[in-house]
Amino acid sequence: MSKQEATLENVYSPIGHRDVRKDNAFGLNRIDHFALPTRNIALMERFIRELLGGEPYYYAGFDEVDRKMGRSHHIFIRVGDVLMQCTETDDGSMIIRKDDPNIAPHIAFKVSADDLTRNFERLSEVIPVAGPFRHRGVDVVSFYFMSPEGHKLEICTWEPYPEEKARMMGAPDVGIMKWADLVHDWPNQPE
């Protein structure tokens, strides 16, 4: 089929097939790192360390040599086997906005079913979270939250998850998650 003839339609994989194959025609096998802009790199660094368990890996742009070279403040923080790169914007502008209603872009972290529950309970004590949600036609359960600046984040599991602990996103009386409900000012939350 040529590219011009291709049509898009729903595709569903059997339950449990998320990790069956990891091959790729071009040898791509996982996300190494992703980069996020930030206006306040100290706040992002603290948020990733304290709420996502991030560990410092590489920080640059903070000493005199880097300043003379014109390097922006940027950090790489390890979260699991992925590096989160955060770079302070030179002019203070970013595309990320707390009032952006779109689902993308967002970053999702994969966990076990037990860790999904544990992280949902832990994070819901300090910031707004939405979920856990099941998704129609796929065997993933996830919940959503934001950084203080509005970066959209998700934690998900592809393991079997108790039916009674997750609602179907989009179902009557559940609806679709709204990012505006997740805006916060961590760590300056009211007591």
From TrEMBL:
<dbReference type="InterPro" id="IPR037523">
    <property type="entry name" value="VOC_core"/>
</dbReference>
<feature type="domain" description="VOC">
    <location>
        <begin position="30"/>
        <end position="158"/>
    </location>
</feature>
<protein>
    <recommendedName>
        <fullName>VOC domain-containing protein</fullName>
    </recommendedName>
</protein>
<dbReference type="InterPro" id="IPR029068">
    <property type="entry name" value="Glyas_Bleomycin-R_OHBP_Dase"/>
</dbReference>
